[in-house]
Design goal:
This protein is mostly beta strands and 128 residues long. It contains 1 helix and 11 strands, in the order βββββββββαββ. Strands 2, 4, 5, 6, 9, 10 and 11 form a 7-stranded mixed β-sheet that branches.
Length: 128
Amino acid sequence: QAQLVESGGGLVQPGGSLRLSCAASGLSSLNGYAIGWVRQAPGKEREGVSCFSSSKRPPYYADSVLGRFTISRDNNKNTIYLDMSDLRPEDTATYYCAVGWDIIGSACRDLPERYQTWGQGTQVTVSS
């Protein structure tokens, strides 16, 4: 059974940067799975932030983070990362790593409810 553990959240000032990590266990490889980051702010719906639908395709990004966030993966470590820069107060949320199968293309960003396994989340707070 897959398990995901996020780390790297915290408090940062507007304009600052953070790096989130998500280590996956219980999977022989991330290849063949969609994996990505989903965030949820209090009182708001979940939002797909960035994801890989497969290891062979470029990642997807939400318009709200395009150019500021970068997702990457280390297949040897079964780990994905989210490098966040130029952070804004509206980026404040709990960030979840999620993995799933049979999630095609941009659905990994647009339909986060399709992920089968979720991490516990890590809080990101952007405030002065």
